[in-house]
Amino acid sequence: MPPRSPKVWLATGSLLLVGAVCGLLSIALATTTVEPERRVGQVLLAIAWGVAAPVQILAGVLVFRGRPFGGWLAVGGAMATLAIAIVSLIGTALPDQASFGLVVLAALHLRSLFRILPQVPDASPAPPTKPMRPRAAVLTELVRDPSTARALEDELDAYARERLGTPLVTLSRDDIRYALESGVAGRSHFRDVHEWARVVEFRDDIGFEDAAVAGIVHEIAGHDSALPMDAYEANLILERLSKAED
């Protein structure tokens, strides 16, 4: 178990102390003889203090163990304890001095929790993080499938500060052809093709097969995102690619 800070010990001690006081009050009220007309109210207060005791003790244990909901339980229990103390004062189930002292104690206890708990570190285990894929694998998926551009852009941001002098993958004529044919066939929307070109055009970790491929990527990315290219323009580019290969 990791070492606990003084704030944790202070919050835990306060909660356990108040829990013990609540338990003693419950026992005292349950065993004290009063007039019959006040007996029902006294029994109810004894039950209330009896419930408050384990709540405060449980909150102390949870705060000590660093559980995130321990603070909420501690504050909620302290507010309930203050309310019970006020009812005890109004109902005169206890001597006036004792009831007033309980109200002051409960108020100070609540105030101290509000000051201490925000500074108590959360010791709960961190959620497992998704392992980062190799950069080349992410880039390969990106250049091969234009529909993944939006989904992969956040993942690629993790590598934004790692500048490379040599591209890890090469975007080929076949990749351009697949992206445009996907738009023409309706497998991808031309907005996705535009987004794909915008993502890949200036990445230093993606190279181009030749200058013609780079020019086509810049041409696609240069379209207005609100008015992306259509099937007619895509077919014209595909024809240019075919003629260049002949």
Unreliably modeled segments: none
Structural class by SSE content: mainly alpha
Question: In total, how many domains does the architecture comprise?
Answer: 2
Count of distinct strands: 2
Helix-strand sequence: HHHHHHEHHEHH
Radius of gyration, in Å, reads 34 Å
Q: Roughly what is the average pLDDT, rounded to an integer?
A: 77
Shape: rod-shaped
Give the number of helices. 10
The major sheet is characterized as: 2 strands, parallel
- Helical residue percent band: 55-70%
Q: How would you describe what is shown here?
A:
- The chain is mostly helical.
- It has two domains: 6-119, no CATH class; 135-245, no CATH class.
- It contains ten helices and two strands; from the N terminus they run ααααααβααβαα.
- It has helices at 6-31, 36-65, 68-91, 96-116, 135-144, 149-157, 173-185, 190-200, 211-221, 231-245, and strands at 169-171, 206-208.
- A two-stranded parallel ribbon has the order 1-2.
- Helix 2 (36-65) packs antiparallel against helix 3, helix 3 runs antiparallel to helix 4 and helix 7 runs antiparallel to helix 10.
- The radius of gyration is 34 Å and the shape is rod-shaped.
- The mean pLDDT is 77.
